Amino acid sequence: MSSIRTKAIYPLLLLILFSHYSWAEEATQYTCPMHPHYIATDMGSCPICGMDLVALETAGSMPSAETEAGERVVVTIAPETIQNMGVRYGRAEMTAFGSRVRAYGVVAESERLRSEVSSRVAGWLERLSVTAVGDPIKKGDLLYQLFSPDLVAAQRDYVSALQGGNQQRIRSAAVRLEALGVSKGFIKSLRKQGKVVDRVPFYAVTDGTLSELRVREGAYVRPGETLAVIQDYSTVWINAAVAEKDLSEVSMETPVQVILPNLPGQVIESQIDYIHPTVDPDSRTGRVRLALSNQAGRLRPGAYADVLFEIDLARRLAVEESALLIGETGPYLVVALGDGRFQPRSVRTGRSSGGFTEILEGVDSEDLIVVSGQFLIDSESALRESFQKLQRIKLGLDQLPLSQQQLAMLDHMIDAALYIHEALVDGYDISPDQLQPAREIRDLLWPGFGATRLGPIMQGAAEAIELAQQARTESALQQALHQLVSELQPWVLNGRRDHYQQQGVRLYQDQQAQQLWLQLAGEPVNPYGAADGELVE
């Protein structure tokens, strides 16, 4: 056997030279859908429940170790069954989305649309036209009438100036009236009628809603005193509290979505109006202000708002989140291969946002993906995979379908035992690096054969090789050799007996200590001492 040699082990890189696979031919076997542990070689009924047996894929059709490592079993489903499952297809598509930063927000009045009504002169409110907070107000509506001696005196000066015909004096008197807050319309009426009015009317200068009323009819007001506040709610603000760690990701160009509890199912697109330059020291959040149109009046100040900032927006290859399944090994998709064939396929995902998940690896835009009904297909694939694993466990070592490449990989473990034997006999130190390729065989073959009777053998052999690598004394190396050969004994004698016999590999046992070793054909040389060696058949 070309791969078995002494003093050195072939590097793993040479294993790629073996590329031919020859699986053993097995007869069709049958199992019960309700009792998968029952397997028969003939078609019939299940002795447990009486159901008809179904064909089971044999070990001869098992996928290779490479397929098992990265893919799931392919299943074929009848067209009528696919229709009954409600299977729906889709593809991975380039979709514009990024990551979402979620923030708490509160609807507030726009301070830009706030108008305060104040008096510029002292006097008494003789008549108040708006009496309750919430009253709608239109521009030009009468707000109140004020009796003020100062206003009466100013009117008399204006009327007197009009009668005297002095234009400069007329202009000065009119400016004084305007400075006291009198409207141009009232001045025009006073000019026309030429009669002083005791109770001067004051009108609204903007549309809105009376949000505050601080006086009552008959009250005495002073110059500069705020009488009422008119608020325009056609546009409102939302003050969003963004976590300090996310503030650097938010910019004026960041797209924003707003969701309000009182508007279920509606998503409002918005833009950032201002990012405050400070952070609240108590909550460790920064305030971001949004401006939203509120012509319908459904956005009410004080209401809660859920604010979503879409950061790092870009076009990415993505699928619907509902198409993804999560298993022990991570996320995967069910890919339609055509002709009713499906296969669960592992994928590597990236960002998830807005119902989409980015796909970095595993599928591309040409793959047809199941986006509805994939759970039933995946269950069918998992069931058939379980059947295959169960069948493998029942296979004897001599029935395992090993390819030439895989057999050559296992031969490296035999090489390791021969190498340790020769090091002990010739009295030289082993190189741990020389044993490393043999130790890695367990990981390479485990996906395909870890669930078979070969699994415990590979596991035990790998542990023994590790002990040999760590051995610092002759006795420790002898113990590692005995443990390694003990683990490989079932494989050498029962797995590929003829193969190793042809290559001259022999299994010996120390007649006194009953310790085992492997060596090539010839006179037995005991690595454990002077006792005779006995050939183990």
How would you characterize the overall build of this protein?
This protein has 537 residues and is α+β, with helices and mostly antiparallel strands. Helix content is 29%, strand content 31%. It has twelve helices and 29 strands. The longest helix has 23 residues, at 404-426. It is elongated, with a radius of gyration of 45 Å.
Low-confidence stretches: 1-26, 57-70
Q: Shape from CA axes?
A: elongated
Specify the number of helices.
Answer: 12
User: Could you tell me how far the N terminus lies from the C terminus, measured between alpha carbons in angstroms?
Assistant: 20 Å
Helix content: 25-40%
The biggest beta sheet, please? 9 strands, antiparallel
Summarize the structure.
The protein is α+β, with helices and mostly antiparallel strands. The chain contains twelve helices and 29 strands.
List the helices and strands and how they pair.
Layout: E1 29-31, E2 39-40, E3 54-56, H1 65-70, E4 75-76, H2 79-85, E5 88-91, E6 93-109, E7 114-118, E8 123-128, E9 136-137, E10 142-147, H3 149-164, H4 167-179, H5 184-193, E11 199-203, E12 208-213, E13 220-221, E14 226-231, E15 235-243, E16 256-259, E17 268-270, E18 272-279, E19 285-293, E20 304-320, E21 325-327, E22 330-338, E23 341-346, E24 348-353, E25 356-361, E26 368-372, H6 374-394, H7 404-426, H8 432-439, H9 441-449, H10 454-470, H11 474-495, H12 497-502, E27 505-510, E28 516-520, E29 533-535
Antiparallel strand pairs: 1-2, 1-3, 4-23, 5-26, 6-15, 6-20, 7-14, 8-10, 8-13, 9-12, 10-11, 12-14, 15-19, 16-17, 16-20, 18-19, 20-25, 21-22, 22-23, 22-26, 24-25, 27-28, 27-29
Helix pairs in contact: 3-4, 7-8, 7-11, 8-10, 9-10, 10-11
